[in-house]
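Class prep. Sample record?

___
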Amino acid sequence: ISTEEPMADTQITPAYTPPPPNDPPANKRSSKLPLIIAAVLVVVLLIILGFWIWNSSRSATSSEGDIPVETVPVVVPEGTQPPLPTETTSALQPVTTDTPTPVPTAQLIATAVIPTATPETVLPSTEITIGSIVRVFGTGTDGLAIRDNPGITNLPVGVAPESTIMEVIGGPLEADSFQWWQVRLESGIEGWAAADFLEPVPEP
């Protein structure tokens, strides 16, 4: 007698095996890489080009600033002035001007003035000099003492009455607060007389 149990008729199902990954994604990444590299290169080139342009413009500006600029003075002719700014108004108002009234001018009549000759009056000279003709005045009835030398203490050589005419022959000298002239009378007497009592005789 067989002790082995009869084996059941079982069906064996094979295990699930996942399919291998597809290769297209890797191919896609490998195809995008050159585009990324090209884009990066373009950006780098644009940055380099922009920096070069900026540096060139800066160098040109600095070189222009170093060039000396000659200032030419502007000569304005004398008597000329720059035009002054004028104010414009929206509406011009009429200007009222006063017309001056003509004033009659006075007519000047020229009158000819004929100068008339005025006779000159010859005044007697009040100065006594040597050679002058003088006369005694201001002594009254006492007369003028004619002395031998200037001075009131000297001896008189004669007395000349009021209005006596005499000729001055010398002097003057100062003595005793008087001025003295040497005179000669018509009688020939010579001496010294005080000038305070003598006056010139006008010539005829």
Observations:
- The longest helix spans residues 24-66.
- DSSP finds one helix and seven strands in the chain.
